Amino acid sequence: MNRTTTGGTSTAAPALGARAGVRPAGYAVVRAGRASFLVHRRAVAVAALLAVLLAVAVVLSLCIGETFTSPVQVVDVLLGRPSPDEFVVGTLRLPRLVVGLLAGTAFGVAGALVQTVARNPLASPDVIGVTHGAGAATVAAMSFGLVAHTTLPYVSVAGGLGAALLVYAFAWRGGMQASRFVLIGIGVSIALGSLTQLFLTKGDYLVAQQAKVWLTGSLNSRGYDQAAPLALVLLVAVPAALWAARAQRGASFDDDTAIALGIRLDRVRLGLALLGVVLASVATGATGPVDFVALLAPQIARRLTRTAQIPLLSSALTGALVVVVADLLARRLFSPVELPVGVLTAAVGAPYLMWLIARTRSRSGGSSS
């Protein structure tokens, strides 16, 4: 057996070719000492293009505001050179941008990992309840003053992990069926959303208003205090992400193929899911629930790269690009009114989700006939 199905499409499994000593078409072998890696040529080209687009978006985000700053001045500030726009760029715009970049990266990778484990393009941390769990825990802490403001990202992680465990407990019935996993996740999301509204009505009024603003997902007033824990988690997660890039090949196989290859599938999927939940929860704690970035980014990246597995690097770059561009549009589209970035991502992501559900149903209907 040398093919696997992921997200409704049948694709050749490059890992099988690698194990057999045959280089799959479109791949190159990169060796680092005794270790060797399969690298998809198109994925590398797409990642380079996304990096260039992200760099352009970063410069534009730092240039555009109530006053326009020239790209030359922006580069001077980034390089630490003296500039008359150092306060506007370095103090007002750059911290917010850093949070957006880190959160978008985390959401992109988290979505790729969750979709790999579920083997379903409909699965993402915000759809299956992870971000809603993080949001409910954070709103409860904010509304009732349970913890200090600096510890809220860690509360978000606890809430996200709790929601993921709840979905896993209800979805597991001698195995993990993708459709059951997604449907139960949606149900848990609705329940947690109702719980969040309860916390808002029972807590202090002024704090509840702040929590409502946080729930829209915004980069307004975000700075290095929110970026620090997110950057730390992403830094620690780098070795795990390198492992995940290799492990997701095995996780996308069906159970029989994975067993034949000697892959400990349950452990691999658990590790991938845990990493994705932590990243999504910490990002939610830093920015609030910026919906649908984790859903959109992996699918955009996969369609661009045309790889069998969802590419983590391209997903990370796409997630960061989506958040940075959405924040720029949210700031300037209805100026002087500033929209939360989560409103803009939801406006794009919700129709995409409905289209994806309709497409999945039409495929399943066609296959049954």
Please write out the topology.
Blueprint: E1 3-6, E2 9-12, H1 14-19, E3 27-32, E4 35-40, H2 41-63, H3 71-78, H4 86-118, H5 130-144, H6 152-171, H7 178-202, H8 205-215, H9 224-251, H10 255-260, H11 265-287, H12 293-305, H13 312-332, H14 341-368
Antiparallel strand pairs: 1-2, 3-4
Helix pairs in contact: 2-4, 2-13, 4-9, 4-11, 4-12, 4-13, 5-6, 5-7, 5-8, 5-11, 6-7, 6-11, 7-8, 9-11, 12-13, 13-14
The global form is globular
Binned strand content: 5-15%
CATH fold-type name: ABC transporter involved in vitamin B12 uptake, BtuC
CATH class, named Mainly Alpha
Which percent range fits the helix content? Answer: over 70%
Low-confidence stretches: 1-13, 15-21
Taking all Cα atoms into account, the compactness measure Rg is 21 Å
* Main β-sheet description: 2 strands, antiparallel
How would you classify the helix and strand content by structural class? Answer: mainly alpha
Number of domains: 1
**Helix count?**
14
If you average the pLDDT, what whole number results?
Answer: 81
How many distinct beta strands? Answer: 4
CATH-defined architecture: Orthogonal Bundle
* CATH homologous superfamily descriptor: ABC transporter involved in vitamin B12 uptake, BtuC
Ends distance: 25 Å
Strand arrangement in the largest pleated sheet:
1-2
**Would you list the SSEs in sequence order as H and E?**
EEHEEHHHHHHHHHHHHH
